[in-house]
Amino acid sequence: MSKIHFDKIALIGIGLIGSSLARVIKREGLAGQIVISTRSEKTLERAKALGLGDSYTLDSAEAVKDADLVVISVPVGSSGEVARHIAGSLKPGAIVTDVGSTKGSVIAQMQPELPSNVHFIPGHPLAGTEYSGPDAGFAELFSNRWCILTPLDGTDTDALDRLTKFWEACGSRLDTMDPVHHDRVLAIVSHLPHIIAYNIVGTASDLEEVTNSEVIKYSASGFRDFTRLAASDPTMWRDVCLHNKEAILEMLARFSEDLASLQRSIRWGDGDALFSLFTRTRAVRRGIIDAGQEVDAPDFGRQKATQATPSQ
Ligand code: NAP
Questions:
Q1: Alpha carbon distances (Å) from 187 to 103, 116, 124, 177, 309
Q2: Does the beta carbon of 41 sit less than 6 angstroms from any atom of ligand 1?
Q3: pTM
Q4: Is the pLDDT of residue 308 over 50?
Q5: How much distance in Å is there from the Cα of 101 to the middle of ligand 1?
Q6: What are phi and psi of 57, to 5 degrees?
Q7: CATH topology of domain 181-308
Q8: Ligand 1 atom, smallest distance to 74 CA
Q9: Where in the chain do CATH 3.40.50.720 domains reside?
Q10: Crossing angle for the helix pair 234-243 and 192-206, nearest 10 degrees?
C-alpha cells in the first residue's frame, strides 16, 4: 500500500502539537512542502531555527495558498478567527482540520467561516505534555495515541480516508465520534483531571499553616503528580474551560456528589466503602496499562524525558 502524501501541508500554529506534526511529517516524508505560520515573530523565528518547515510566514492566509492539507493547531478560542482569516485563500478541495481539545465549539466557530468547496474535518489527537511552544514538540508524540475525528454530516469519504491515513502515518490510532459525545468523554478523561489538579495545587499554595517550602520538599508523596497537570499551558486550559462549559459543569457536579460520598465514608469510618472504591480504581489503572496507554513502571513511568503522556 502506498504511503499517504500531500504536495503541500500548511501548519497554522507551531507550538507543542504543530511542531510535533512538523517533525513527524518530515520524518515520514508525508509532504512535498511544509509551510509554517504562527502569530508571533518570535515563535516563527524559533520554528525557522529548528528547521521545522520549508517556508515560513506570519500570514496564515498566505500559508494556506495551494495547500492540500491545512492543520490548525491554535488555542480553541482562536480557531474562528483563524478560519475567518484563511477562508478566502483556501484551495478548492483542500482538507482543513484542527487539533483542538474541544469539538462542539471549534465546529461552531469554524464551519460558518469556511467555504463549501473545502473538506472541513475536525480532529483531536489525544497526545500531549505539560510543555508548550515549538521546542516542546517531538516526532513520537502521537505514537500509539488515539486521534479522534469528528466528521460532520455529508463529509466526503475520500477526504476522511486521506486524513485518517495521515494520522495513522503520524503513529496514531484512529476513532471517529460525534462532537457532542467527544466533548462529554473528554470532559471526564481530560478536562476534569486538569481542573482538579489546578484546584488542588491552588489550595496547597493558599494554605497558610503549611509553608511553600514544605509543599515542595514533601511533594513526592502525591502532590507532585498533580503539579504536572497543573503546569499545563494557561491559555490553552482557559480556552478549554470556556469552550466546553456545559460538559465540564455536568461532570463537575457528578464529581462533587461522589466527593461528598467519599467524605461521608471517611467521617463515619466506613472502611469497607473506602477499600471497595480504592480497589475499583486500582483496576482502572491496570486497564490503562494493559491498553498500552501507560507504562507499568513506578513513578508513573515518567523517568524518560521523551515519554509522551496521554493528555488533553
Ligand atoms: P502551544 O504550544 O501553546 O502553541 C500554540 C500555537 O498557537 C502557537 O503557534 C501560537 O502562536 C498560536 N496562537 C496562540 N494564540 C493564537 C491566536 N490568538 N491566534 C493565532 N495563533 C495563536 O499550544 P499546543 O499545546 O500546541 O495546543 C494547540 C492546540 O492543540 C490547542 O487547541 C489545544 O487544545 C490542542 N491540544 C493540545 C494538547 C496538549 O497537550 N498541549 C493535546 C491535544 C490537543 P505564537 O506562539 O506565535 O503566539
A1: 11, 30, 13, 14, 17
A2: no
A3: 0.93
A4: no
A5: 10
A6: -155, 150
A7: 6-phosphogluconate dehydrogenase C-terminal fold (1.10.3660)
A8: 7
A9: 6-177
A10: 120
